[in-house]
């Protein structure tokens, strides 16, 4: 059966490279982007016949619903849903200085958006034999690693807590799915130089970051309900 993947936030950065790597593996990939022009441009510049654009703003319920309808015109199943879209608005801002409105905006996209994406597309993922949902997370969201100082101490309360909440989605849906249902897992690419961190130097390339996500997306090992970095399972 033909394989289908949907990647959100894929007009640039890590998402764009995830699309490329899955398209090379002969998936039909729906490249999700909230901006029509940027999404179309990304599809054109990738140059694959098996990549098509699906507009989706994950903070907008109607947009998610119309993305689903657009995909249903092509297929009734999704083998991979990669929840990659995300924002970080509080780099360099101390918790004591974080504005409530900024925190809400981050939760709106990273947490509520990802939650709605999972609920909306779950019926399509369930229709695939071995369907998988990958939530892109960060090691900075691991409470254990943060408390133990195992990662660079970037105390970004807003961004980090939204991804901790995304990890909760992974655990909760994973618990619901058990061993027989679809799989849901969280994967961190690790520090990757992108617009998200204002292109901070010293990170992985977007292709390297994407490779880690694609490795787990295509793995035969069942990591349902786990969060992972390039070396394997990481603590909550
Ligand atoms: N870079 C890192 O070091 C790193 C580390 C760990 C995890 N991550 C995670 O990796 C993922 C990709 O980030 P990136 O580093 O590649 O950043 P990026 O280059 O800024 O890409 C983020 C993507 O998300 C999209 N997006 C933002 N809000 C959206 C919304 N409401 N609806 C749909 N799409 C939306 C952006 O679209 P626009 O172009 O329209 O803004 C863009 O396509 C994120 O989830 C991030 O948290 C990144």
Separate helix tally: 7
Which second-level CATH architecture applies?
3-Layer(aba) Sandwich
Q: Give every kind of bound small molecule, once each.
A: NADP nicotinamide-adenine-dinucleotide phosphate
Q: What is the name of the CATH superfamily?
A: NAD(P)-binding Rossmann-like Domain
Largest beta sheet: what is the strand line-up?
Answer: 3-2-1-4-5-6-7-8
Mean pLDDT: 97
Characterize the largest beta sheet: strand count, sense, and whether it forms a barrel. Answer: 8 strands, mixed
Number of domains: 1
Can you offer a commentary on this structure?
It contains seven helices and eight strands. The longest helix is centred in the middle third of the chain and has 27 residues, at 100-126. Strand 1, helix 1 and strand 2 (28-33) form a beta-alpha-beta unit. It has a single domain (4-233), classed as NAD(P)-binding Rossmann-like Domain (Rossmann fold). Helix 1 (13-24) packs across helix 7 and helix 3 packs parallel to helix 4 (100-126). With 236 residues, it is an alpha/beta fold. The protein has an eight-stranded mixed sheet, with helices on both faces. Helices cover 42% and strands 14% of the residues. The protein has helices at 13-24, 36-46, 61-72, 100-126, 143-147, 157-177, 206-217; strands at 4-7, 28-33, 51-55, 80-83, 132-136, 183-187, 227-229, 232-233. Residues 8-9, 11-15, 33-35, 38, 56-59, 84-87, 109, 113, 136, 138, 188-189, 191-192, 194-197, 203 line the site of NADP nicotinamide-adenine-dinucleotide phosphate. The site of NADP nicotinamide-adenine-dinucleotide phosphate has 32 residues, from helix 1 and helix 4. One of its GO terms (molecular function) is oxidoreductase activity. Keywords: NADP, Oxidoreductase. InterPro entries: NAD(P)-bd_dom_sf, SDR_fam.
């Amino acid at each position: 059966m033909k394989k289908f993947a949907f990647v959100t936030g894929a007009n640039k950065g890590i998402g764009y490279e995830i699309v490329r790597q899955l398209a090379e593996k002969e998936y039909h990939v729906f490249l999700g982007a909230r901006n029509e022009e940027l999404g179309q441009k990304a599809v054109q510049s990738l140059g694959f016949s098996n990549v098509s654009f699906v507009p989706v703003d994950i903070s907008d319920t109607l947009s998610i619903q119309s993305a689903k309808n657009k995909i249903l015109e092509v297929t009734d199943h999704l083998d991979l849903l990669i929840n990659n879209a995300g924002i970080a608005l509080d780099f360099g801002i101390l918790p004591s200085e974080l504005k409530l409105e900024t925190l809400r905006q981050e939760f709106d996209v990273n947490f509520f958006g990802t939650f709605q994406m999972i609920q909306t597309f779950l019926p399509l993922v369930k229709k695939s034999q071995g369907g998988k949902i990958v939530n892109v997370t960060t090691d900075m969201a691991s409470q254990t690693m943060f408390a133990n100082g195992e990662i660079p101490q970037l105390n970004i309360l807003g961004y980090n807590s939204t991804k901790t909440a995304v990890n909760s989605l992974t655990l909760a849906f994973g618990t619901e799915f058990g061993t027989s249902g679809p799989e849901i897992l969280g994967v961190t690419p690790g520090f990757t130089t992108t617009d998200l961190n204002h292109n901070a130097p010293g990170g992985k390339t977007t292709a390297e970051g994407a490779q880690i996500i694609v490795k787990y997306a295509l793995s035969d090992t069942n990591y349902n309900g786990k969060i992972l970095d390039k070396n394997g399972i990481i603590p909550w």
